[in-house]
Amino acid sequence: MKRTGISQARTAPAGAGGAFRPQLTSLIDVMVILLVFLLKNFSVDGQLITPDPKISLPQSTTDAELHPALNIHIRPDMILVEQEPVMSIEKTGAEEELLLADLYDELRDRREEGLLIHADRTIPFEIIKKVMHTSSKAGVEHFSILVEQVE
């Protein structure tokens, strides 16, 4: 029986000078498995969000995905809409009504479907409630609060 290909290279004595010929079928199989694995685990969903360095986010164990939305930052000193200052926290806390006029004027013309609130963990819920109420009066339908995920 005549031997050919790879088996000759494996059984050739050391120093015989035989050429090693890898089986391409096995290598292609491995590459296809790696490619399928990487494609299966690759995610194009989600929104890249950079938290404000002046905000300390609350912690949560939720797995809910974020959807594109208008960003409102509630810092310990100020409320910002898409990084633009709108009103101070002192003015927010001083107002008796739930509707924040300055924030309402900013949001009224935007007509966003969703809102992502970046709130510092030290902010009282009363202020967050005022922001959410004002946003809903301005036409925002969905709210999400950005949190730090705990594993």
Automatic annotation (TrEMBL):
One of its GO terms (biological process) is protein transport. InterPro entries: ExbD (IPR003400). It is a single-pass membrane protein; Single-pass type II membrane protein. GO terms for molecular function: transmembrane transporter activity. Pfam families: ExbD. Keywords: Cell membrane, Membrane, Protein transport, Transmembrane, Transmembrane helix, Transport. It is found in: Cell membrane. One of its GO terms (cellular component) is plasma membrane. Belongs to the ExbD/TolR family. This is Biopolymer transport protein ExbD/TolR.
